[in-house]
């Protein structure tokens, strides 16, 4: 059709919404079985799908045993997490929400990959340069560490584009 605009598919919308979001909420289960939720700045990576974040090493415990903030790999969750990213502020008048939820496993970014991953994080969040030195972070000379959620499943929701089926479950993209 002349002049028609191609509508993005679910995967394109999912990546658009994850990039547009500013904070993610990340939930896990403590060793005693109680839930814990944190709000974190993040840097998204795709194929494979990763959400990288910086947190104090004494605040989290990733799936590899590194402690990551009150959340515990040794507890019932074993490093498994769930989370949410809202792409745009909810429009209460229109009653619509656009964003994603996800499940995955949190782990420390491998030490050799930290400098490049930290620099990518700082490209997205340049104001964090005062608190994040990629080389010191890689050498564990700071109270913070760089972590990543390896996403296993996404749920795209968009009540405006898909009013009759607002949730679309998608497996995460993986490389061979």
Task: Characterize the structure shown.
The protein has 176 residues and is α+β, with helices and mostly antiparallel strands. 15% of the residues lie in helices and 38% in strands. It contains three helices and ten strands; from the N terminus they run H-E-E-E-E-E-E-E-E-H-H-E-E. The strands form two sheets. Strands 1, 2, 3, 4, 7, 8, 9 and 10 form an eight-stranded antiparallel sheet that branches. Strand 9 and strand 10 form a beta hairpin. The chain is globular and about 50 Å long. Residues 1-6 and 62-76 have low confidence and may be disordered.
Give me a quick take on this structure:
The protein is an alpha+beta fold and 176 residues long.
Task: Describe the structure using short key phrases.
single chain, 176 residues, alpha+beta, eight-stranded antiparallel sheet, 38% strand, globular, disordered N terminus
Radius of gyration: 17 Å
Write down how many β-strands occur, each being a DSSP E stretch of 2 or more residues.
Answer: 10
Unreliable residue runs? 1-6, 62-76
Helix/strand order, N-terminal first: HEEEEEEEEHHEE
Counted by DSSP, the helix tally is 3
* Gap between N and C termini: 38 Å
Q: What helical percentage do the residues reach?
A: 10-25%
Largest sheet: 8 strands, antiparallel
The residue-averaged pLDDT reads 79
What structural category arises from helix and sheet content?
A: alpha+beta
Q: How is the secondary structure organized here?
A:
Elements lengths: L9 H11 L2 E7 L5 E7 L1 E3 L4 E7 L3 E2 L5 E2 L11 E7 L11 E11 L5 H11 L9 H5 L5 E15 L8 E5 L5
Antiparallel strand pairs: 1-2, 1-7, 3-4, 4-9, 5-6, 7-8, 8-9, 9-10
